[in-house]
Known about the structure:
Layout (H helix, E strand, L loop, with lengths): L3 H20 L32 H8 L2 H5 L1 H13 L3 H6 L5 E2 L4 E5 L8 E5 L2 H20 L24 H19 L7
Antiparallel strand pairs: 1-2, 2-3
Amino acid sequence: MVHKETANKLLGVLRGIFNFAHKYDYITKNPAHMVERYSLEPADKDMLREPVYIPRGVYEAMIHSQAARRHPPIRQVLFLLYHTGMRIGELRRLRWADIDLGNHIIHVTASPQKGGDRDPYMVSRQLRVYMAISKKMAHQTHDSGRWKTERPFEQAPVVCNGNGNKFSYSNLFHRVWRPFLQELAQEKGDVFSI
C-alpha cells in the first residue's frame, strides 16, 4: 500500500511528464489532470480545532522524567510548547534572532501559507531564565564548531539537531518524540500509554 502523500507526489511527476508530452503534441490531452489528489486532511479535523492543554502535573512528570533527560531536545521542545502555546511548526521556524529577552518578547513567524506574519509572544520570568541559559549553551556549541553550519548564530534554529540544523517533522517525530514517548510509557506506565 502506498501512502497518500507518496501517491500525490507520483501524480505530480506523472502530470509533469504528460504536460511535456502534450506541449510537444505527442498526446492531445493530459490524462493525469482527470485524477484527483488525495486529501491529506485528518478525518477528525473538526475535532482538532479546539486547543489541547496538558495538565501541569502531566507536564511536570514528562519534563522531569528520566526519558526526557536522555533526550535533550525533548525537554526544550516540551518547555517551549508548554510555556508559549506555540504550534510545532512555529517552534521549528524559531531562530535565536526571534528571541528578545531584554524586552521579554519572542517573535513567532506564522507559516508561509498564513502569510508569514510575525506575532510577539510575551515571555514569563521562568521562560526568560530558561531561554537565557539555553541561548548561552547553544552559543557555546555554535562557537566551538560542533555545528556543521556556516550561518551566524542569530540565524540558527532554537530547536536543532547535533549539526545545528532544524529538525524535519519526520526526524522530530521518529527520532526524538516517538522514542521519548516509548521510554516514558515504560517508565511511567500507570500515567502514560501510547
